[in-house]
Amino acid sequence: MQKSVKIMCCISVFTVSCRSIEVEWYTACSDADQYRFTRDICEIAVADQTPMDLVSEAPPADTQEDNVLDTTVCTSGNCEPIVQIGHGWFHTCALTASHRLYCWGENNFGQLGDGTTASRTTPQLLTGTAEFVEIATTSAGVCARTMVGTVSCWGVGPLGMRGVSTCGSVMCNQRPVEVPNLTGVVMLAGGFGHMCAVLSNRSVMCWGDNDVGQVGDGTVSPTRELPTTVPGVANVRQMACGAKHSCVLLDNGSVRCWGGNMAGQTGQASSNLTATPTLVPGINFVEELALGYSHSCVRRNDRTVACWGDNQYGQLGDNTTTSRSTPQMTVPLPAVRQVRAGAFHTCALLDDNTVQCWGDNQFGQLGDSTQTPRMTPTVVTSLPAISELGGGGTSYTVCAALNPTGLSCWGLNMNNQVGDGTNQNRLVPTQVLP
Fold first, then answer.
1. Exposure of 340 in the CB half-sphere (CA atoms within 13 A)
2. Is the pLDDT of residue 306 over 90?
3. Exposed, middle or buried: residue 372 (CB in 10 Å: 0-12, 13-18, 19+)?
4. All domains of the chain in start order, with CATH
């Protein structure tokens, strides 16, 4: 049953729109902390303490709530909603409403977090961890936010500390390890080898790979091992990372990006890297960000999608393969509820619960039963109504939480990241969970 959650005994500061839902920022009665009504799930993200007095109630019959998922995962007869899907390069994870995390696919760097390097062909429950409320994937790692605003990571990449295990010739963590010097986190975003966190005061810290300035602290260095503050950004509403670039959405609907810009993905005319947050010109009224390997997309408040950056496979959706440094409107779509980017493709969830994708399709990631790239949106075939799309800037696989139950995935599967027990690429959605 769909539910809404309210914070009692608190004063609303303002209400904004984030992704497909309404996001409310509150000041606690103690005037000490701020709370965020999390995107996509009815749960309070807590900076430093447990939320006060929560009341759940059914919404009025005539109220449409897009922010609550009724998609469920059933295991041994126990069904629970899926609230988030994350894709790495060759692995996939899905988080449920009861904070259960399932991961599958390649595990050579411990990115499944189960203490081994054995790959998994089907979803496996991660046990013995804190309760996670959000996940963010890198190419070969995962970071997860806890209910108290701390972050733990595993695999390789932006772990916030040196690996404690050896995965081949690479230092890694095969189990979740808490990132030091990082608290009060309310949102995460992961790139190829870097990670960013939005804090309760709505500032940003990033760490990990920094070879093209993707950490955003004004420096260019091989890596930033520990989280570092990104200067010049405040009032951040949403954060997203591509492979080697990062963007934030601010309260005023504008977007600032930094990092690699060889294809114009940070929105600057010059192809030079940008080591500090820089305004993306020509775009406003933004409600959601989605970053691919080297392209960027936004959903605006009129439910349209605009993209910029690399376009060699048509991933900008403007019916060309010309890369752009300024935002381009995609071929018109019906009202868009969510936009997600993969490595070189883009997908949109529409108000009618159908999905359309465009761009690279060499592994079937557009889900249209072909391997033909598309420069304009094409309908994903054989897909029932869904509630949530997965995304990841290094991924060639797509998963969708079905409505009312199940999980379907398609695209690249050579490392079992589709999760159907095989390593065969899937050109159309394949049901993974019931």
1. 28
2. yes
3. exposed
4. 10-43 (no CATH), 309-318+328-434 (2.130.10.30)
Cβ distance 409 to 418 under 8 Å?
A: yes
Residue 227 in tokens: 């989280």
| Predicted TM-score (pTM) of this structure | 0.83
pLDDT digits 0-9 by tens, 310-320: 999 999 999 99
What is the mean predicted confidence (pLDDT) over 191-213? 96
Confidence band, pLDDT 50/70/90 cuts, at residue 159: low
End-to-end CA distance of the chain: 18
Burial class (CB in 10 A: 0-12, 13-18, 19+), 60: exposed
Residue 218 falls in which region: left (phi positive, over 0), alpha (psi -120 to 50) or beta: left
pLDDT digits (tens, 9 = 90+) for 323-340: 999 999 888 898 999 999
Question: Encoding tokens for residue 252?
Answer: 């005023």
Q: Give the burial string for 232-270 (b: 16+ CB within 10 Å, else e).
A: ebeebbbbbbbbbbbbbbbeebebbbbbbbbbbbbbbee
Quick one: pLDDT at residue 34?
Answer: 31
Q: Is pLDDT of 102 > 70?
A: yes
Q: Is residue 80 within 8 Å of 71, Cβ to Cβ?
A: no
Q: Where does residue 399 fall: left (phi above 0), alpha (psi -120 to 50 degrees), or beta otherwise?
A: beta
Among 272, 276, 253, 250, smallest CA distance to 263 is for 272
Residue 180: CB atoms within 10 A of its CB come to 13
Q: Which tokens is 187 given?
A: 């949102």
Cα dihedral across residues 401, 403, 406, 412: positive or negative? negative
